[in-house]
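re: ur question from earlier - yeah i can do the single chain one, its not a big deal. heres the input i used so u can compare w yours
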Amino acid sequence: MVLVRETVLGDWQVLRDIRLEALHDAPSAFGSTYAAEAARDEAFWHGRSSGGGMFLAYLDAAAEPAGLAGGYQLDPVTVELISMYVRPRDRGRGVGEALVATVISWARARRAASVHLWVTENNTPACQLYERCGFTPTGERQPLPSDPALSGLAMARVLDSGRAEDDDAPDG
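and the output i got, formated as tokens:
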């Protein structure tokens, strides 16, 4: 069972640790770099953990999080899914889907019309996860800020709460 919860101030160190692990483990998957994030001070992490929209996922009663993701309100109708990461040992266990569903629910609570994200174009497992969760490519591409030699692909999911088939859980 996957439990996802929003971070609070007391989670700042755990959030920092898993974020740095993500940047170390998969540097080409993120727009930021390990060096840039490791240099951020404690006040930054306090704000990040208590500012709303950051989520940690846990498997069963595990003490360490299995993954993290965030939602960032770009404008009144669009939420950006950010910082998505699942620890390698916990992949394939529904953690990614649970995190995406949580960000989608968070976006709906803010009356967003869509959730947008950027994914490294050659990150096939991530692209497949997002497709399973109802995201489609928008056609937008840009160089990855952390490595301009790589290309980021934009994907989005329209949130139409009036349709029965538009639920938070991916099919299958």
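Helices lie at 12-25, 34-38, 42-50, 95-109, 124-132. not sure if urs matches, ping me
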